[in-house]
Amino acid sequence: MATLSIDPTTASLKADTKAPRHLASIADLTPEHVAEVFNTAGAMKAAPKPWSTMLSGQSWVMLFEKPSLRTRVSFEVGITKLGGHAMYYDHSKTRIGVRESIKDYAKNLERWVDGIIARTFAHDTLTQLAEHASVPVINALTDHEHPCQALADLFTLKEALGDLGGAKLAWVGDGNNVCHSLMLLAAKLGVSMTIVTPKGFEPQFSVVKSAIADAEQTGATITLTHNLDLIAGHDAVYTDTWVSMGQEDTQSMLRHDAFGGFQVDGELMALASRGLDHASHFMHCLPAHRGEEVTDEVIDSPESLVYDQAENRMWTQNALIALLTGKS
Predict the structure, then answer these.
(1) pTM of the model
(2) Residue 180 bears catalytic tag
(3) 149-309 in CATH: which number?
């Protein structure tokens, strides 16, 4: 299997690999970009002080249509650790593009701030901000993708395993935005992924098609199934809430009925560990609904990586900012 081996002693992009202007999607990153982010994140985590003035004199605005704990705090604290200033702008009541056009909004913001972090419902809102802003725009979650989460997740899995070479990740649950970004990133890094969903809740075909195209280049496999037995022999099992933000009023009952047999419990984790020389790790982007998609015994087990994932949001996001601003 062809995989991306990340050497922490080498943290520079190839001369012919240009860093992206924005991060709207995992598709904006090459494997070399991801290696750069992971190497820089590891360096920052090990010794934060040398990076403490990287954003000195800079201000970044955070535009949030959706509520958040990890995304807001990790970006605010992270930017502060880099010597910059993060300003939170609440768009939960007035969506971006309602009071004035997204183009005008972006053109105003670029005159004041050094970067834009946007957490939106519609992915098109994010891409329009990136289209019109001359400063970096980072996708902090849309209904289509959550690239910052995926970067933190595979960085965390690499920490846990020591290397991503030959790694296998199982996704159990809804084929949602987090699943989309994880599939795309896993494929780029040569990590095989098995996505187990109830019928009718598969990830979008266009995302699957893109992931398979990258997987063919790296030797990874992308498997879609409704059969939970196929998670045997996976290094980690990842799940998410059955009902995503914005779906609570319309799909809660439907989804609870459909996902009832897809809870990650001790028995399922034992199945995932079958054939491995280590216990399978558990992953979740949080917030978790304990007793629904995951049991307490699993999320609180020694194999759970959920709090490492949360911490690593900050380190990988800071490394991403370094990549986008040319300071890594």
Answers:
(1) 0.93
(2) no
(3) 3.40.50.1370
